[in-house]
């Protein structure tokens, strides 16, 4: 703690130069559990936009990248992006963005749009962390047998909404969630779908909140009509380097085609699912005709040293506007 305070004091004496930033959001919501810290509460989102408007120039991603290429990007520039395509992007985020005249880009998981199922990581969290009754499961995930027998929650027991999956699990349910997520995240899409179906048969369902679901095609069109840019986020949200080259290329190209059909216009940007990419994947994105792409590498944009198809982003957490500004100021390229 003393070391951190000393570093902050030294930065105030010798402040780092202001640099541009791209922010990564997922949801504007207050879910009962949020193991990956994907949600920002509505009031905090408003506060963050107000803080950014006071200290930063909020640019559309296309304008941000164009200015970056032309070496005229303001040091105080910031761009807002949303991953996946949650319905609350339409119902909660979009009205606030419109009221604040703040541009944004939403990257869509093309295969999920219009579907009736939640994203698998959210469904898994509800299954394991919110189900109050006893949980028993025995399934195969990618050739590995995995089982669990978790007791019912005691009266008065509740999941911890502040727990994050990168923290040590403190309960058997948290440990089970992390184990299953790690196994499911890297297997092939058909194997994941089979495992999730087996879990649905074994565990009583916990219904999803309406706004936790992916948006519909009509809602995508509404976003685009409201001036929010649409980008692609692959088809199945599979980590792309786990796929064979032909499948990887299909994910990249098909998602762009689907998104273009939904918005009836150009789709210039791509975001790598889970930030997973390598040199071959980056080249595929460039060859598919995108103008730029974002990773999940947590850093500021360095105007002197950047890859237009591997732009870093800072995760916007559920914090105050002042705390978000501090996070940006303390980040590094």
What does this structure look like?
The protein has 333 residues and is of the alpha/beta class. The protein has two domains: 17-116 and 211-330, Alpha-Beta Barrel (TIM Barrel), CATH 3.20.20.370; 122-207, no CATH class. The chain contains eleven helices and twelve strands. Strands 1, 4, 5, 6, 9 and 12 form a six-stranded parallel β-sheet that branches. A two-stranded parallel sheet has the order 2-3. Helix 10 (279-287) links the parallel strand 10 and strand 11 (292-294). Helix 2 runs parallel beside helix 4. The longest helix is centred in the last third of the chain and has 19 residues, at 245-263. It is globular. The two termini are 24 Å apart.
Please give a quick description of this structure.
40% of the residues lie in helices and 15% in strands. It contains eleven helices and twelve strands.
């Amino acid at each position: 703690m003393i070391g951190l305070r000393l570093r902050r004091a030294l930065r105030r004496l010798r402040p780092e130069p202001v640099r541009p930033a791209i922010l990564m959001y997922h949801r504007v919501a207050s879910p009962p559990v949020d193991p990956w810290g994907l949600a920002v509460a509505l009031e905090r989102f408003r506060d963050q936009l107000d803080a950014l408007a006071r200290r930063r120039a909020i640019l559309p991603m296309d304008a941000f990248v164009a200015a970056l290429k032309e070496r005229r990007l303001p040091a105080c520039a910031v761009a807002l992006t949303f991953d996946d395509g949650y319905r609350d992007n339409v119902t909660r985020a979009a009205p606030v963005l419109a009221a604040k005249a703040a541009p944004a880009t939403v990257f869509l998981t093309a295969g999920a749009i219009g579907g009736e199922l939640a994203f698998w990581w959210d469904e898994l969290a509800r299954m394991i962390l919110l189900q109050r009754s006893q949980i028993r499961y025995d399934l195969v995930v990618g050739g590995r047998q995995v089982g669990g027998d978790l007791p019912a929650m005691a009266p008065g027991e509740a999941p911890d909404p502040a727990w994050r999956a990168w923290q040590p699990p403190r309960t058997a349910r948290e440990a089970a969630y992390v184990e299953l997520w790690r196994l499911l995240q890297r297997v092939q899409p058909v194997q994941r779908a089979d495992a999730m179906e087996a879990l649905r048969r074994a565990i009583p369902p916990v219904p999803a909140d309406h706004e936790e679901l992916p948006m519909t095609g009509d809602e995508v069109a509404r976003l685009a009509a409201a001036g929010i840019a649409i980008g692609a986020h692959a088809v199945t949200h599979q980590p792309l380097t786990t796929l064979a080259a032909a499948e990887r290329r299909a994910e990249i190209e098909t998602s762009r085609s689907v998104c273009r059909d939904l918005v009836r216009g150009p789709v210039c940007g791509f975001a790598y699912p889970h930030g997973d990419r390598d040199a071959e994947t980056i080249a595929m994105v460039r060859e598919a005709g995108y103008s730029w792409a974002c990773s999940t590498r947590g850093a500021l944009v360095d105007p002197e040293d950047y890859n237009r198809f591997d732009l870093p982003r800072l995760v916007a957490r559920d914090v105050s506007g002042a705390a978000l500004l501090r996070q940006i100021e303390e980040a590094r390229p």
